[in-house]
Amino acid sequence: MIVKTLLTVQQSLSHYYKSCQPNDVAHNMCFEVLGFDIMFDNAMHPYLLEINHAPSFTVDSNLDAQVK
Predict the structure, then answer these.
(1) How many Å apart are CA 34 and CA 47, to the nearest integer?
(2) Top-ranked range on mean pLDDT: pick from 5-9, 20-24, 39-43
(3) How many domains does the chain have?
């Protein structure tokens, strides 16, 4: 699911990456962190809920810390 989603926006992501440092192709210093929220039903079928452009890395509980 994540790979197929990224393939659909690959051209846009490539454009943004190249615009970060257009003259420094050798080092490829630009990257993107995306957060995928996926829910599974009782039959373990995945459903994509949302993609976060700037996911939070803060933790609010011990379980949250373990997951992240």
Answers:
(1) 17
(2) 39-43
(3) 1
